[in-house]
């Protein structure tokens, strides 16, 4: 046997090869990362509520591969605030040439997309674009 034999392999302890000794008892947790937070196995399965931070609503969702991941979408208050600001802007600048209006709206939308454009937020961005165009056509 060499010096590195047995490193990175499960300890046998007279059990099956697929058995792995994590060092944690069944009472503590079957998942070691939950012990530090005082969670039990039942708590791991239920995910915490959503929260807003930096204009995003962070929430738990399943990835396409079936893993739990934290996703982000535009927070509802930021979405409403953006729509309100554009709704206030449209009637004030309706006397401007159409090309100038479109350039200004495009600049505003690109700024919003630049900040809020992240994986999983496409629906909110598409909704904002649709509503801004409808609002602009109204005026």
SSE blueprint and pairings:
Elements: H1 41-45, E1 51-53, E2 56-62, E3 68-74, H2 76-92, H3 98-116, H4 122-138
Antiparallel strand pairs: 1-2, 2-3
Write structural notes for this entry:
The chain has 139 residues and is an alpha+beta fold. It folds into two domains: 1-45, no CATH class; 74-138, no CATH class. The protein contains four helices and three strands. The chain has helices at residues 41-45, 76-92, 98-116, 122-138; strands at 51-53, 56-62, 68-74. The chain has a three-stranded antiparallel beta sheet with strand order 1-2-3. A hairpin with a 5-residue loop joins strand 2 and strand 3 (68-74). Helix 2 packs parallel to helix 4. The longest helix is centred in the last third of the chain and has 19 residues, at 98-116. The N and C termini lie far apart (82 Å). The model has no long low-confidence stretch (mean pLDDT 76).
Low-confidence stretches: none
Beta-sheet strand percentage?
A: 5-15%
**Overall average pLDDT:** 76
Number of helices: 4
